[in-house]
Amino acid sequence: MNADDLLEVFEVMLRARLFEEEVGRAVVSGEIHGEMHLGIGHEAVGAALGRHLRPGDAVVSTHRAHLHALAAGVDPVELAAELLERDGLNHAKGGHMHLFDPVARFMCTGIVGAGVPIAAGYALVQSLQAAGALTVAVMGDGTMNQGAVFETMNLAAVRALPMVFVCEDNGYSISVRREDSTAGELHRRGAAFGIPGFACDGTDVDRIDAAMGEAFEITRKKSRPSLVVASVYRFRGHYEGDLDLYRPAGEKEAALARDPVRRLRQRLLDGGTPLARLAEAESRASDAVTRWFASARRRPVPRRETATDHVFVGADG
Ligand SMILES: Cc1ncc(C[n+]2csc(CCOP(=O)(O)OP(=O)(O)O)c2C)c(N)n1
Ligand SMILES: [Mg+2]
What we know:
With about 325 residues, the protein is an alpha/beta fold.
């Protein structure tokens, strides 16, 4: 990536970071109820996804989905309004863990591993349509231990489905450390099915972009599955409000060097990007997020009478 690309990626990541920080504040203020999972620290994965997705591609994500939704092109105001329990993307019936956007071809689910076979269904349709589109299934490192993931890898390989498995390896499943739950190297797990796997530092924008580029190329050109495992650090608790008592002392502080936003900012400065250009990007990102949330907060709260709308296909409303 050249300096202009890097600056653009920086702005994309910063918007995502500011978006999620605002969501975190809305949990504290009581605007958002229920469990909220933020991907702060995972932004480079979202940014790389955004660079490689094409119109017609689909993304199926997890309980930690906002960065992938933004990358897939979900309207940020619709997304923010949905999270704020207002009349947003899914009229406040999806909430942050069950987002669904048929236009952007994005969905997520809070049931760990359940999205992966659904993604295979999307990829099956895409392979029948033969239009060169693909589906990305995002999962966490813990999710890689779910049986449905292996079944899907097998089926995707047998049916040569255009599917990219993307694992965000943040080293934890809630409070359980990866070493205590997960054997072997995650990116090699596809090998048994003949699925090429790429491991990378998912906090380094060049490395994640290159890994994603290779995987997407294999899947798009050869119509066959691929796997990317991006190592990242989760800076917030598993959910907002998690007491976060399970990490060894000093781990989070040491990981600050792997904060992808800070890292890229420093790299841009070291590479000679003038501070003024960075400041412009920073104020554009901050203005955009302020605007999105102001619009989202003007959306109405759904009325009680609409509670049963959109429950069954073809029903009223
Ligand atoms: C089938 C199922 N089992 C357990 C849970 C509870 N749960 C929610 S997130 C999570 C951990 C997921 O870890 P990982 O896949 O590494 O994703 P991360 O939260 O680290 O992004 C668990 C066990 C669930 N939602 N669904
Ligand atoms: Mg994890």
